[in-house]
Amino acid sequence: MKIGILEPGFAPEELRDEFKSYPKMLEKLLGDVDPGLEFETWTVLEDEFPDSIADADGWVVMGSKHGVYENAPWMIRLQDFLREAVGAGQPVFGICFGHQILATALGGKVVKSDKGWGVGVHAYDVDASNADWLADSPSTLRINAFHQDQVVEIPEGATVWASSDFCPYAGLQYGANAASIQPHPEFMRPYEQALLESRHDLIPEDVHKAAMKSLETPISSPDFAKSIVKFMTRQRVRNAA
Asked: Which residue among 37, 83, 150, 179 has the highest number of C-beta atoms inside a 10 angstrom radius?
């Protein structure tokens, strides 16, 4: 299976030599589960888009420092692309900004939250009742987060599969072939720590201190990666049938 990665943002320049890019992190996360997966990245931030939704079997939208409410031309184009892919029955998965822009594309609302920064390891309650791809997921996921924006109104027909007091709409699903998550399953501890250290001046001291302490908590990302792969590949099997 070929997964198309839509890249709407870059890692901070000072971290790229060591950590490369968000697509490379995703390739490592999912490739460790299924080495047979193929990947190709399009940097939509620079208006580099696939020629067609058929250029990959499914799509993953990554994170970005930008807010979807900026309505930049490339964001409008990305929303059109996502609606087309979802409407065609392709598997589509969003992460952080990808979670937010998928919700926006399908009729939801995103704002810069008055709850402030969500950083460090966050815990999310999982409701798998409408998401069979999460059948093997634990009832609580612990995943690295790094965001201020949140989905505050979900699209009609969307279901919530992950939530917390801080982020009620942390995981959303749209029918059988589109889903998303607010935190970053591709962020392992070394990167989350480096990112926190590089952005220390932007985050309130008490929030930053708690986030650094939270990094001692084991995360669910390696196991959750199995669920993402199941979601992407299961839908392809359904389409083929």
From this structure: 179
Domains of the chain: 2-240 (3.40.50.880)
CA distance 185 to 20: 16
Beta carbons within 10 angstroms of residue 109's beta carbon = 15
Bridge partners of 180, per DSSP, are: 94, 172
* Number of helices followed by number of strands (H, E) in the chain: 7, 11
Q: Which residue spans within 54-157 are E strands per DSSP?
A: 58-61, 92-95, 109-112, 118-126, 140-147, 149-153
Question: For 196-228, how does the pLDDT look when each residue is reduced to its tens digit (9 = 90+)?
Answer: 999 999 999 999 999 999 999 999 999 999 999
How far does Cα 21 stand from its chain's mean position?
Answer: 14
Helix axes 22-31, 221-240, angle to 10 degrees: 80
**pLDDT-derived band of residue 236, with 50, 70 and 90 as boundaries?**
low
Pairing status of strand 38-42 against strand 149-153:
unpaired
Residue 129 neighbours by CB under 8 Å, 6+ apart = none
